[in-house]
Amino acid sequence: xxKPDPIAQHPLLNQEGNPVQFxxxxxxxxxxxxxDYLKAHRHNFYEIMVFEKGNAQHDIDFTSFAAKSSSxxxxxxxxxxxxxxxxxxxxxxxQFTGGYFSDEVLEKLPFNANPPLLKLTKEELKKVLYLxxxxxxELAQNFNLRNSIVCAHAEAVMILLAxxxxxxxxxxxxxxxxxxxxxxxxxxxxxxxxxxTVAHYAGLLSISPxxxxxxxxxxxxxxxxxxxxxxxxxxxxxQLFHTSHSIKEIAYALGFDDPAxxxxxxxxxxxxxxxxxxxxxxx
Length: 283
Known about the structure:
This protein is an alpha+beta fold. It has two domains: 9-168, Regulatory protein AraC (Jelly Rolls), CATH 2.60.120; 179-280, Homeodomain-like (Arc Repressor Mutant, subunit A, Orthogonal Bundle). Helices cover 43% and strands 17% of the residues. It contains ten helices and ten strands.
């Protein structure tokens, strides 16, 4: 019996194949990747894709996004994605591991947003490109405190993107999203395979379940239970489509104590049983 094929999470490596925490990947350059980037894949690092010119199609977890000039796309470590660029398109990726930037900075970036992208003004793009060029210059040298300067410039880029996200990221009331809501969404990403209840996350946030329900509904239009469900179903779809894991194995991996309960949960959310979904998507 063949062992089920997991969805590989590729590490962040430099040109020599050694692990790194940060890198700039300029599109169009010849790279010796350790994986086939022309097939759907995911990483164990964060990726911010900056589109300078041209068009592309970017598929992230079964949703296709148009990528045009001055747009920025955010790919989290658990996302399965595939980028199809037109030949004349140009841009680059900023790639970094968890811990390279503080949680405070990461929480302000739209990795968990829907859609996970931003549109920069010409002036904002100009500032980002200037800072990235400074990073490239430092990376090409071996001067004293090089890594500190690279990190400082990179954090400045993140702050610029966070500022654009804050200007774009409004809820149902038109007000900026509450830090509690952003923190809740990040906690769900970390713990959804172990915990499915609103009460658990409210406890981690030191607020009542009722308050968490109120602020999520007001600012996202969804209950916290629906936000948890969205993350669970997205991962279930990834596993059903990209692997040959059995329904039973997927159910246990996602924290369900009974595969039948998982099947009912999945069908209630999608209208398909897990098996029917797998057959429908051609796996």
